[in-house]
Amino acid sequence: MSFVDNVLNFARNSDDHTNKHYELIINFAHMMLEIMPMVMHTEYLLASRIGKPQLAELILLDGAERYQNAMSVYKGFLNEQHRSLILGSIGNKAEVFHRIEKQAENFIKSDENRLLLSLPLGRVAKLEAS
Question: Do residues 128 and 53 lie in contact, with contact meaning Cβ atoms separated by under 8 Å?
């Protein structure tokens, strides 16, 4: 997910942002990561509905891999910002990061997205029976 990576690099590399812009950029990346599993799951359901179970499975498996890569980038960004906070080099963005940090922690701990991107258990029996 180079898009999420680019958005977070934009937040990371520019000191010209106001605190509000910094917060909006990070929240945008966060919201993108929140809706991605729902979109992928919907695409999986649509492909299943039109009778393309292998395509549906491929969509979900590929989407889950891409999502995990994007989440790794997001977690890396948050860890980097947290280290900057501890070292005192984050500057005036510390207050904003504190607000974002708790929201991000709850999001990362959530199982909902993992469940949306996992294959249903009944699909194995159906594919083996074919």
Answer: no
